Amino acid sequence: MSHTTENVSQTKRKISVTIEASDVNKAIDSTIREYGKNLNINGFRKGKVPASVIEKRYTDDVYNYATENLINTNINKILDEEKIRPISRVNLEDKENTQKLERNKDFSFTCSFEILPEIELPKDFSEYSVKVESDEVSPEELEKFTTQVRRSMATLEDVNEDRKPMDGDVLLVDVEGSYEGKPVAGMGAQNFLMQISDEKDNTNKEIDKLVRTASVGEEVSGTMVCPDDYADKTMRGKTIDVKIKLHKIHKQILPELNEEFAKKVGFKDIDTLKQMIEAQVKQTKSAQVRSKAQHELLDSITEKYDYELPESMVQSALSNYMMEARNHLGQQNMDPEEMLKAMASLKEDGEEIAKRQTKAHVFLLSLAFRENITVTGQEVDMYIRQLAMETRQQYEQVRDHVLQSGMVTDIQERIMAGKALDLIFDQAKHEEVKAD
Fold first, then answer.
1. I want to staple 8 with a disulfide (CB 3.0 to 4.6 A). Which of 12, 70, 149, 315 is the partner?
2. Tens digit of pLDDT for each residue in 191-234?
3. Residue 174, SS3?
4. Using an 8 Å Cβ cutoff, are 235 and 179 in contact?
5. What pLDDT, in 10s, does the model give residues 92-119?
C-alpha cells in the first residue's frame, strides 16, 4: 500500500491511496470466508459453500464489503502512522467515479476530512486574569428562590370581583402585535396564560403595564418597542402596535412556608426544607458565577488568536442554532410564510454565533488533545442522564438515540472541552468583584 497526503488547507487533508493487486485479492478472499460462515445454499452444508460459488453468486455484496473493509483498514492505518486526528467524517472523494474493485488489479481511492488547525497554545494560563463575581447569596436571592418553590405548589383561584390585574395574577389573554397594519410574526397568541410580574428585572414591562389597564372582557391597545433579541431581526427596535384582550383573572394562592408544606414536598420538617433551599441557591449561584467568568476568560484569550475554522464544525453549530430557533418559533403558532421570513433573518446572526462558538470549541479541543484529557464511559453516561432530565425524556430513549445517531464522539468532545475550560480557569488569576 502506498499513499500521499495533501494539505488542502489549515483544516482539510486529502489522502490518495493505492493498494496492490495482491492485497486486493487477499481482501476479497477474506470477505468471502466471512460471508460464507453462516451461508445456507441448497446442496451445500451450512458454512461449507465453495468460495467460487459465493463469489459468483454474491459478487456485488462480496465486493462492496471488501471495498469498504479495504478503505477503512488502510485509512485507519495511515491516520495512526501519521498521528492525524480527523474531527469530521472521512469522506470518499468522487465516490461515483471511484474505480470498482477487481481481482488481480491495483485499487486506488482518495478521501478527505477535516482536522483541527495548529494553534500555538500558551504553555499555561497563569499570565491571564479574570474578574469573578462574589457567589455570596443575598437575602433577596434566597427569598426569590423560596417564592419559586412555593409557586411550584400554588393553586389558581378565579377572581370574580370587578378589578384590574395586580402583581402575581395569572391572566388568560389574546395578544396581537402589528407593525404598519401587518401582523408581526411571533406576536400573536390566543388564550395565552401570562403572569403579572412584580420583579424589577421584568422583561415584559410594556406588556404588563398595558394589561394592567384592562378589565375582564375588555380589549386594550398600546405600543411596545420590539426587543433587541427578537427572532425577526428586521423588527428589532421598532415600535409595535399591541392589542390585548383580557378573558380571565386568576389569583395565585401561594402555600404557607410551614411544616405542612415541607412534608408535602418531601421533607421531614421546615428546617430541612430551608436548608435545602439555601444549599440549592448557593450551588446554583456558584455555578453561574463560575460559568460566566470562564466564558469571559475564554473570550479574552481567543480574541487574540486568528485561525481557520473547520467548516463542518461551523455548519453543525449553525444547524443546531437554526433548529433551536425553529422549535422556538414553532411554539408561537406562526404562519409558515412568516416563519420562513423570520428564519431567513436569523441565519445571518446564526452564522456569526456559530463561528464564535466553533472558535472557542476548537481552542478548547486543541488544548484537551495537548494535555491528553480523556473521557470515561461513566462520564458519557452521566452526561446522557443529565440530558434526559433536561429534556424530560426517558434515559433509555435518549441513550439509544445517542448510540444510533453516532453522537457519542460529539458528547466526548463536549466533555473534553469542558475539562479544558476548567483547566484554563483554574490556572488563571482570579480577581473577586461584587456582582452587578
1. 12
2. 888 998 766 555 567 888 999 999 999 999 999 998 887 767 77
3. strand
4. yes
5. 888 777 778 999 999 999 999 999 999 9
Helix or strand run (H / E) with residue 11: none
CA pair distance 64, 57, nearest whole angstrom? 14
Give residue 148's Cα distance to chain centre: 27
Q: Three-state DSSP class for 3?
A: strand
| φ, ψ of residue 213 in degrees (nearest 5) | -90, -5
Q: What is d(CA 325, CA 314) in angstroms, rounded to the nearest whole number?
A: 16
Q: CA dihedral defined by 229, 230, 234, 238, rounded to 10 degrees? A: -90
Amino acid at 222: G
Task: Tell me the C-alpha distance between 55 and 77, whole Å.
Answer: 27
User: What is the secondary structure of 406-431 as a DSSP string?
Assistant: T-HHHHHHHHHHHHHHHHHHHHSEEE
Residue 260 CA, distance from chain mean position = 40
Buried b (16+ CB within 10 A) or exposed e, 359-397: bbbbbbbbbbeeeebebeeebbeebbeebbeeeeeeeee
Query: Which three cell numbers mark 229?
Result: 433579541
Question: With helix as H, strand as E and coil as C, how does 323-369 read?
Answer: HHHHHHHHCCCCCHHHHHHHHHHHHHHHHHHHHHHHHHHHHHHHHHH
Q: How far is CA 422 from CA 311, 360, 373, in A?
A: 26, 14, 11
Count of CA atoms in the C-beta half-sphere (13 A) of 319: 6
Pairwise CA distance, residues 268 & 265, whole Å: 9
Which residues is 219 bridged to in the sheet? 245
